[in-house]
């Protein structure tokens, strides 16, 4: 019987020392660095971009970035409830109410790329070469005939919101489509999981370019890029800080500091370079310099799609930080 | 990358180990009391704890999330998205396991031992300690099974920890994330580590059960 008492003691000792060791190795957050909780869309994190940015940012700043990667919908919800300091999202139509309802301030557009429609190699709905809206019409026709399938994120993420806007632009009602469950499938997963599901089912889906590229090099998906680089498929990422007067307990100064880093030359270069070596093209394009050009048609499209009242952040929501807006 | 794997593994062990110890603070006395004492409704109490053995981790995670978020009743503690939130959540998760194991370990001890201790002049607490000493093997099992459940769970760690890299990412949430990031090799490495830990623990449990009197 004595053996067991010894064994108990040893087991407990091992667990305690492991716990203690990990504590001293700095696994738990230390109080010297101020925490900044960034609630972000999955595409910025799952592609690895934010990891790279975090590494560079933390070497020169007293801020400990804590990144929570969920869809845009949940990112906004966490910030509204005061559980995050800032958000990185890509759904202008959801960002505007976030500002006007007084939750968010100091919005800055940080990057853009394009959404893409991807699908099976055989392309049963014959959409290659069409515009995005024509393609969606074709997919619905083929779907109703039982020749094609569509997988939707179905999770109120930025990509899902974009998908709903595209259906509307193509004269379909999303609510009607989702009832046609024999060809319209809701994944309710992150982008990675949705791509895998679409690949397994030989279905079409809407994806952000970054996540698609980072997955296409793995053996997990066999989906082919069919339509992208089109004005209709523009994808714009912005950073919004949580309003200090609404949630005084949040780290507002930290949020502004990180926003400044993201739009700085260094931050923008990091964004523009990321993925170039691995995928042959950057996963995201920096937006700050582009938006300063007045005659660039792409800049014009971004303004049309993601500006509110002609500004990336209307004056009343800049909360005394005009330096962010040149 | 290797450093990250070590960090995540250490954090998993540390968080779940601390949760096990924390849970023992209340679970051992409760389990011991239920095992030793005869009281009205004892079967009901045991039934309730047994029912909670199968607590789905996401359910507990969701409830805890609602309690500790800023707008929740315990929001002032600022626990959300910290390792301590996971520790508390896992400690609660494994409480029924630890209580049930301790109770049955104590009940399997011959009741004469307690009476004997008392006739030899032991106080109530001393007699209880004597029983716990006799039930050491079973109590150890309670610790191991609890730790096992804690380190393998994902719902609580995901919901209240948030799987923040460098702060609250543990083995289970890291494995899920690697799938979403299409890093299958890293995901498999982490899975192998988690499996090794769980297998090693189960092996220990088997050894103990075999050699138990």
Description:
The complex is a heterodimer of chains A (326) and B (213). Chain A has two domains: 34-113 and 234-325, Periplasmic binding protein-like II (D-Maltodextrin-Binding Protein, domain 2), CATH 3.40.190.10; 115-233, Periplasmic binding protein-like II (D-Maltodextrin-Binding Protein, domain 2), CATH 3.40.190. By secondary structure, chain A is α/β, with parallel strands linked by helices. Chain A has 15 helices and ten strands. In chain A, strands 1, 2, 3, 4, 5, 6, 7, 8, 9 and 10 form a ten-stranded mixed beta sheet that branches. Chain B is mainly α and 213 residues long. Chain B is 77% helix and 0% strand. Chain B has ten helices and no strands. Classes of the chains: A alpha/beta (326), B mainly alpha (213). At the A-B interface, helix 1, strand 2 and helix 9 of A face helix 1, helix 7 and helix 9 of B.
**Whole-Å distance between the termini of chain A?**
76 Å
CATH architecture of chain B: Orthogonal Bundle
Percent of residues in β-strands of chain B: under 5%
H/E element sequence of chain A: HEHHEHEHEHEHHEHEHEEHHHEHH
Helical percentage of chain B: over 70%
Shape of chain B: globular
Q: Report the β-strand fraction of chain A as a percent range.
A: 15-25%
Task: Enumerate how many helices of chain A there are, as a single number.
Answer: 15
Topology summary:
The complex is a heterodimer of chains A (326) and B (213).
Chain A: H1 2-24, E1 34-40, H2 42-46, H3 49-59, E2 63-69, H4 72-80, E3 86-89, H5 92-100, E4 104-119, H6 132-144, E5 150-152, H7 158-169, H8 174-178, E6 184-186, H9 191-200, E7 204-208, H10 209-216, E8 224-227, E9 234-242, H11 252-263, H12 265-273, H13 276-279, E10 285-286, H14 288-292, H15 297-306
Parallel strand pairs in A: 1-2, 1-3, 5-6, 5-7
Antiparallel strand pairs in A: 3-9, 4-7, 4-8, 4-9, 4-10
Chain B: H1 2-36, H2 42-51, H3 57-68, H4 83-107, H5 112-119, H6 124-134, H7 136-152, H8 155-161, H9 171-180, H10 184-211
């Amino acid at each position: 019987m004595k053996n067991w008492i010894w064994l108990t003691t040893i087991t407990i000792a091992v667990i305690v020392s492991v716990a203690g060791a990990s504590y001293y190795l700095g696994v738990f957050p230390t109080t010297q660095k101020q925490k900044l909780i960034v609630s972000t869309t999955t595409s910025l994190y799952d592609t690895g971009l934010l990891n790279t940015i975090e590494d560079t940012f933390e070497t020169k700043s007293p801020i400990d970035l804590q990144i929570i990667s969920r869809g845009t919908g949940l990112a906004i919800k966490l910030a509204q409830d005061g559980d995050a300091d800032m958000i990185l999202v890509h759904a202008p139509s959801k960002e505007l109410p976030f500002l006007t309802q007084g939750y968010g301030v100091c919005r800055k557009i940080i990057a853009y790329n394009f959404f893409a429609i991807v699908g099976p190699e055989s392309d049963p709905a014959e959409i290659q070469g069409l515009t995005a809206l024509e393609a969606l019409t074709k997919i619905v026709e083929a779907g109703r005939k039982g020749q094609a399938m569509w997988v939707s994120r179905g999770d109120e993420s930025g990509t899902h919101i974009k998908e709903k806007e595209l259906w509307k632009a193509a004269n379909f009602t999303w609510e009607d489509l989702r009832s046609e469950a024999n060809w319209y499938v809701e994944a309710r997963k992150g982008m990675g999981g949705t791509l895998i599901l679409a690949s397994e089912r030989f279905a079409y889906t809407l994806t952000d370019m970054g996540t698609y590229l980072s997955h296409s090099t793995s053996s997990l998906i066999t989906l082919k890029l069919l339509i992208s680089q089109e004005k209709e498929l523009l994808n714009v990422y912005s950073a919004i800080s949580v309003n200090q007067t609404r949630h005084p307990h949040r780290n507002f100064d930290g949020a502004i500091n990180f926003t400044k880093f993201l739009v700085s030359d260094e931050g923008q270069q990091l964004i523009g370079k990321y993925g170039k070596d691995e995928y042959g093209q950057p996963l995201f394009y920096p937006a700050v310099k582009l938006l300063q050009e007045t005659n660039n048609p792409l800049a014009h499209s971004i303004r049309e799609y993601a500006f509110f009242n002609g500004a990336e952040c209307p004056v009343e929501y800049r909360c005394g930080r005009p330096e962010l807006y040149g | 990358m290797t450093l990250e794997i070590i960090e995540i593994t250490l954090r998993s062990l540390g968080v779940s180990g601390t949760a096990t110890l924390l849970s023992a603070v209340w679970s051992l006395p409760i389990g011991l009391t239920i095992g030793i004492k005869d009281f009205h409704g004892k079967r009901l109490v045991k039934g309730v704890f047994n029912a909670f053995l199968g607590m789905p981790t996401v359910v507990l995670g969701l409830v805890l999330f609602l309690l500790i978020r800023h707008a929740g009743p315990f929001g002032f503690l600022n626990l959300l998205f910290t390792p301590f939130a996971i520790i508390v959540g896992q400690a609660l998760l494994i409480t029924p396991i630890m209580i049930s194991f301790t109770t049955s370990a104590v009940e399997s001890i011959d009741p004469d031992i307690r009476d004997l201790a008392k006739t030899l002049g032991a106080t109530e607490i001393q007699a209880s300690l004597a029983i716990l000493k006799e039930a050491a093997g079973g109590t150890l099992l309670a610790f191991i099974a609890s730790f096992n459940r804690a380190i393998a769970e994902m719902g609580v760690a995901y919901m209240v920890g948030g799987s923040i890299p460098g702060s609250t990412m543990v083995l289970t949430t890291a494995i899920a994330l690697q799938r979403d990031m299409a890093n299958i090799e890293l995901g498999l490495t982490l899975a192998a580590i988690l499996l090794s830990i769980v297998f090693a623990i189960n092996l220990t449990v088997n050894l103990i059960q075999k050699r138990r009197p």
